Amino acid sequence: MDELKRIINGRVAENSRTPSQLEMEHMKEMIQKQWKEAYSTALSNAQGNGCYPFNQPGWVEQSQQRKIF
Question: Which top-rank group of organisms is this from (predicted)?
Fold first, then answer.
């Protein structure tokens, strides 16, 4: 019986979060979202500016030639 109480109390403790923990989780999610948006914007800007080599025609042939010579 004591073992069952310990398990139940442990699960209740795991599921109960303080408001500060919820705020921290929300902040973490928001920061991750902002990083994803910034990365996506930077990648699309690089592709649009021609800085991204995979957008350029013939990049495969050029990279293979560099490996050979």
Answer: Bacteria
- Three-state helix/strand/coil letters over the chain: CHHHHHHHHHHHHHHCCCHHHHHHHHHHHHHHHHHHHHHHHHHHHHHHCCCCHHHCCCHHHHHHHHHHC
Question: Residues 37, 31: contact at Cβ < 8 Å?
Answer: no
What does the alpha-carbon distance between residue 16 and residue 13 come to, in Å, rounded to a whole number?
A: 5
Residue 52 burial (CB < 10 Å; 0-12/13-18/19+)?
middle
Residue in this structure with the two tokens 């500016």, named with its chain if needed: 49
- Polymer length in residues for the chain: 69
- To the nearest whole percent, how much of the chain has pLDDT over 70? 45
